[in-house]
Amino acid sequence: MNTDFIRGIIPPIITPVDENENIDEAKLARQVNFIIEGGCHGILVFGSNSEFYMLDDLELEQGLKIALKAVNGRVPVYFGIGAVRTRKCVKLAQMALANGAAAVSVLTPMFLRPTPRELYEHFRTIANSLQKAPMLLYSNPGRVGYGVPVDLVVKLVQDCENIVGIKDSSGDMTTTAELIRSFRGTNFKILGGKDTLIYGTLSHGGHGAIATTANIFPELVCSIYEKYMSGDVAGSLEAQYRLNPVRLAMDKASFPVATKDLANLSGLDVGEPYRPSLSSEPDVREALKTAARAAGLL
Is the dihedral of CA 121, 125, 126, 130 positive or negative? Predict the structure, then answer.
């Protein structure tokens, strides 16, 4: 299976909404174009910062179709799945692939705490339902409460040929490095999930990052990857250092509000977050603005 397309900077695209919390088609298409023109190498529709947990199945399909139409084949489109029930994950994955997604990304089930056997069967069942279409694992212990152990990833990849990569949002470079070490010499792709560790992931041998801030500052975020791949290691690290204070300032807001706050402050006009989330208080928005200005991004 050719997995060469799984690389680079892939933003989990913001889901713009109107005043009635309906997906705003024009703004989503505009966000797609902004990301691609900024140099991004793919788009993840309904990652964590896309607020996937707020939408029903029909809205998820609607958003995917809007994004695919706007992308028009220019970059790969990935579809994020965060359902708890295995059968629902299968249904959503098959829907996404039928509509033209290049691959699906499946988050560990929220709220539950599965045993390794349960987690193995969950991912294996989804992978086996996809007619060998590419699937990525998504490990985000900070949000879900547990991660995917490296040895379980190895077993899944051995048993399921279409599990071709992972987004590692652990924020633990030992975990990331162990994933990369375990799959040296293979086509398995390791993508970082922490915007502050893109350079670190690349320097250990990773393949890129699914990076929230690329929604807002795509040229800067993509420069970390492009400079590194061209051999400008010092320039890549400098770009990472320029980004980090902005990303860290986003932690002052609740998740995932900061992404939309910063996008709106940058003039992207993506609407409000889905309730019960609310736009940040003025002091938090001012802190975001100050960090972006200090980095020369506003």
Answer: positive
Burial class (CB in 10 A: 0-12, 13-18, 19+), 200: middle
The 10 Å CB-count burial string (b at 16+, else e) for 187-198 is: ebbbbbbbbbbb
* 208 three-class SS: strand
Q: Please write the tens of the pLDDT for every residue from 256-287.
A: 999 999 999 999 999 999 999 999 999 999 99
Q: Provide φ and ψ at 132, rounded to 5°.
A: 70, 10
CATH number of the CATH domain containing 16: 3.20.20.70
Let me know if residue 253 belongs to a domain.
no
Note the pLDDT of residue 187. Answer: 95
Please report whether residue 245 resides in a domain.
no
Is the whole-model pTM more than 0.90? yes
Q: Domain of 36?
A: 8-233
Please say whether the beta carbons of 164 and 1 come within 8 A: yes
Furthest-apart CA pair in the chain: how many Å? Answer: 51
How many other C-beta atoms lie within 10 A of the C-beta of residue 62?
16
> How many independent structural domains does the chain possess?
1
Beta strands in 69-207 (DSSP E): 77-81, 103-107, 135-139, 163-168, 189-192
With a pLDDT cut of 70, the percent of the chain lying above it is: 100
Q: What is the pLDDT of residues 287-297, one digit of tens each?
A: 999 999 999 99
Residues 6+ apart with CB under 8 A from 177: 204
Q: Cβ neighbours of residue 88 under 8 Å, at least 6 residues apart?
A: none
Note whether residue 290 is domain-resident: no
